[in-house]
Amino acid sequence: MVASAALLIRERGAHPTAIADVLAHSGAPRGSAYHYFPGGRNQLLCEAIDYASDQVAARIDKADSAGVLLDAMIAGFRKQLSASDFRAGCPVVAVAVEAGEPGAEETAALDRAGAAFLR
């Protein structure tokens, strides 16, 4: 469900992405949302930020040099953009831009993303 949430946020933005959309996209039963995300949509958005941040951190950690990292990041973005007909962006940016006045949970998730990107 978290991967589906990250993908939908990339393609639609944070505000239009509802738990029902994530459930439909992931194929998960409705009860899963309440079981795994007792904090509701906000918790799911924060976990999607963490998921996307972890993917970037993994690319950073695998790179032997700045050049290798840059090539990997560009290749990853190219693949994501091509696969989405150039509609998908970064889920972290989508949440950060749309958050307005983020609460403590969103701020913490965005701070973790910033730390992951600055490795």
TrEMBL record:
Domain of life: Bacteria
Keyword rRNA-binding: no
Domain HTH tetR-type: 4-44
Keywords of the record: DNA-binding, Transcription, Transcription regulation
Keyword presence, Transcription: yes
Gene Ontology molecular function terms on file: DNA binding
InterPro entries documented for this protein: Homeodomain-like_sf, HTH_TetR
Pfam families, A to Z: TetR_N
Residues of the signal peptide: none
Protein name from the UniProt record: TetR/AcrR family transcriptional regulator
